Amino acid sequence: MFKKILIANRGEIACRVAATARRLAIRTVAVYSDADAHANHVRACDESVHLGGSAPKDSYLRWEKIIAAAKATGAEAIHPGYGFLSENEDFARACAQAGLVFIGPPAEAILAMGLKAESKRLMEQAGVPLVPGYHGADQNPELLQREADRIGYPALIKASAGGGGKGMRIVEKSEDFAAALASCQREAINSFGSDAVLIEKYVQRPRHIEIQVFGDTQGNCVYLFERDCSVQRRHQKVLEEAPAPGMTEAMRQQMGEAAVNAARAVNYVGAGTVEFIVEQTGGYDAPEAMKFYFMEMNTRLQVEHPVTEAITGLDLVEWQLRVAAGEPLPLQQEQLQIHGHAIEARICAENPDNNFLPATGTLHVYRKPAQHTAFQRSRVRVDDGVREGGEISPFYDSMIAKLIVHGATRAEALARLDAALAEVHIVGVATNVQFLRGVLATESFAQAKLDTALIERERAVLFKREPLGLPLAVAAAIAQQILGEWPQNVSGPASGFDRRDGWRALGSYPRPFAFEFHGEPVQALLRYEGNGGLHLTVGEGDGTIAGPLLIGQFPDRRIEVEFHGARHTLDVYVHQGQAHVFAPQGATRITPVDRLAHAGDTQAEGGRLTAPMPGKVVSFAVKAGDTVAKGQALAVMEAMKMEHTIAAPADGTVQELLYAPGDQVTEGAELLKLAVSA
Ligand code: ADP
Ligand code: ADP
Ligand code: MG
Asked: Who contacts 277 (Cβ-Cβ below 8 Å, separation ≥6)?
């Protein structure tokens, strides 16, 4: 086995490879770009080498520099992770020439599978079933049009060099073909440097089912069962699970053997994935009527490999290392078994409501569910390469973390994933976490009616959903604020529920709050009751919801709120003026509006500025005769154990201060006179 390896990647996959290496007592070398100088993957390795600028072409794609780093640090082998150089046959060859082991398949196998059209020609010879289509070398547009007409519509034009869901066009009818071809070729030449395309029948309501294969240098090749990756957006995977729901033993074996044939046809060594598109000719509930066709082979470790690890109890990176070191596969086909069910969710920095546009920013809050054990058959596993305070930069892809769960059954795994997602708290960067929970909750997903259009099909329930609702959001934001105003000696769980005495001295009085929720203004009125209790009214007029409000806080700052007939445990984080509320049933955001500045608006009409609640005048920021601008701070009051700034509601001139610092004032007392400019 190797003594030291270099990991030519970043983020979660570099951390994941490093973890296995550490377990096997293999030393690791990280490489990093400027943007990643303090990244987790650098810390996860024993030593590190700086590559260059933040853009991949200046760092993670500089293979001469990576090879030099391996030589300089005495690494014997290079693990390429996925993406970047993992499917670059020139890099694989250069490693060999430099006397380094490339932890991946032989360069010839990468080359053979690198272009979709060529690989399909090879697969045809190997007897692997193909989607009806055209994958010839002749790229004459008229010939391509004739082929599409022969195949029938809808047809799919694919860039032969494409990947990552890019370079594909669905063509609905013959008249649209020429324009779609031109646009596909443009994208293909720009993104992949080649405009060669192939044409496939566009399979309706298909599933994406792929087979994990593994080969060794002794000529063994096995399949580690399937993964269903049908839930996709923009032709990219979002949720992946294993085994595939509804899969029959007979079909698993047929697909597994077809995948092994595909791998053997290119003398495959190491971890690979054969992707199939599956036609559900008998509908969702007729697995026996599923037809599978080869789509492509990915000659690397796949993002979603952890679900296979979860159901087989194996560490695929360990297998990669053993095979690369010349050892035989640790297990034979008949020794491999499926245990239970696993699902992975890709947590991405993106905005589902804006066509999944990737997002960037700082992980102001990053909390994740407790993990049971690392790798293998853990029940909840988080693979990530980030930490709280870190940046999601525009240089690399938008995946923040992968959450992988395992259960005895699909239903158990699904419930566990939902609960684990509820414990993922991210503030500062838009993410798909709530969206993923929405997908899990759809009837289609829950009942395993899977196909690649699931998200489109469930559009009506998936987008713009509000999991918490207004009353709870308001109660949470108010609880967060007033708990912050209480003395900090709260101990024991939910002690606020027992803490009624503190209010008695203040008597009963109302405190107005204002919020913005989903772009709409919301008024709320909190009443401190004489007996120490709280009473909350949310909204005005017909839709008003009112009742007692009980609040408390655990030592871990988690908040407990009881309002409107239900008790909730919440986490609330205030960031950039917004309260981010996380509850077991979902998360939402609500914006407190400065009620005091706001209150001034109406009360200042006659030039009066009044105390919105009983309290003490702390200071005046102005004196008589000062001209002030709208929004400028005029006075600071202390009430509810918190300081409140009273701001000018409009431009004007201060005429008179009516109190002095230290004075106690009652609610409604006029603090100063302001002459508002015309
Ligand atoms: P998987 O099939 O393992 O889910 P993805 O298609 O999501 O893989 O891609 C895995 C990684 O590889 C991602 O970081 C993606 O950006 C990158 N990737 C995939 N194909 C290409 C390609 N042709 N060129 C560059 N990067 C790619
Ligand atoms: P990439 O290299 O980008 O991963 P693939 O060929 O694997 O490209 O296709 C990506 C996705 O596009 C598939 O998972 C599937 O959702 C869809 N797709 C590909 N080929 C077809 C087809 N012939 N019919 C219907 N959908 C397809
Ligand atoms: Mg693919």
From this structure: 131, 203, 206, 207, 208, 292, 293, 295
Q: Which helix (H) or strand (E) holds 526?
A: strand 520-528
Secondary structure (DSSP) of 351-386: EGGGTTEE--EE-SEEE-PPPSSSSTT-SEEEEES-
Looking at all shown ligands, the one closest to residue 166's CA atom is: 2
Which residues have their alpha-adjacent CB atom under 5 A from ion ligand 3? 275
Q: Is the pLDDT of residue 334 over 80?
A: yes
User: Atom 5 in ligand 1: which residue has the minimum CA distance?
Assistant: 164
Q: Which residues pair with 221 in a beta bridge?
A: 215
C-alpha of residue 165 to centroid of ligand 2, in Å: 7
Instruction: Give the whole-number percent of the chain exceeding pLDDT 90.
Output: 74
The number of angstroms, rounded, from the C-alpha of 54 to the middle of its chain's C-alpha atoms is 22
644 pLDDT above the threshold of 80: no
**Distances from the Cα of 145 to the Cα of 158, 177, 186, angstroms:** 14, 7, 17
Question: pLDDT tens, 462-521?
Answer: 987 899 999 999 999 999 988 877 654 444 333 445 444 443 344 577 888 999 999 899
What DSSP assignment string belongs to 438-488?
HHHHSHHHHTT---TTHHHHTHHHHTT--SS-HHHHHHHHHHHHHHHHS-S
How many Å apart are CA 612 and CA 601, to the nearest integer? 12
Q: What is the mean pLDDT of the chain?
A: 90
Which residues on neighbouring strands pair with residue 662, listed in sequence order? none
Is 129 in a helix, a strand, or coil?
Answer: coil
- For 438-470, the pLDDT digits (tens) are 999 999 999 999 999 999 999 998 987 899 999
- Residue 607's pLDDT is what? 55
Q: Nearest-CA neighbor of 555 among 473, 483, 503?
A: 483
Contact 433, 426 (CB under 8 A): yes
- Mutate which of 60, 82, 236 for ligand 1? The one with the most ligand atoms within 8 Å of its CB, which is 82
Ligand 2 shell residues, CB under 6 Å: 131, 156, 162-165, 200, 202-203, 206, 208, 232, 235, 275, 277, 295-296, 452
Number of Cα atoms under 13 Å in the Cβ half of residue 291: 10
The DSSP symbol for 267 reads: T
Given ligand 2 and candidates 116, 147, 168, 450, which is best to mutate, with the most ligand atoms within 8 Å of its CB?
A: 168
Of 97-106, 114-123, 227-236, 492-501, least confident by mean pLDDT is 492-501
Transcribe 280-308 into DSSP letters: ETT-TT-GGGEEEEEEEEE-S--TTHHHH
Closest to 313 measured CA to CA, from 223, 378, 380: 378
- 300 in catalytic set: yes
Three-state DSSP at 658 gives coil
User: If DSSP codes are grouped into helix, strand and coil, which group holds residue 173?
Assistant: coil
**What would the mean pLDDT of 553-570 be, rounded to a whole number?**
91
For atom 2 of ligand 2, which residue has the closest CA?
163
Among protein residues, the one with the nearest Cα to ligand 1's atom 11 is 83
Q: Of the ligands numbered here, which is closest to the C-alpha atom of 308?
A: 1
Q: How far is the CA of 199 from the centre of ligand 2 (A)?
A: 12
Question: pLDDT per residue over 375-393, tens digit each?
Answer: 545 699 999 999 999 999 8
Q: 582 - beta bridge partners?
A: 571, 587
Please tell me the predicted confidence (pLDDT) of residue 507. 56
pTM over 0.90? The answer is: no
Look at residues 453, 394, 530 and name the one whose alpha carbon lies nearest to residue 204. Answer: 453
Mutate to test the pocket of ligand 2, among 115, 452, 454, 456 (most ligand atoms within 8 A of CB): 452
Residue list, ligand 1 pocket, CB within 6 Å:
82-83, 163-164, 236-237, 298, 302-304, 397
Taking the CA of 456 as reference, the closest ligand is 2
> 300, 346, 379, 416: which one is catalytic?
300
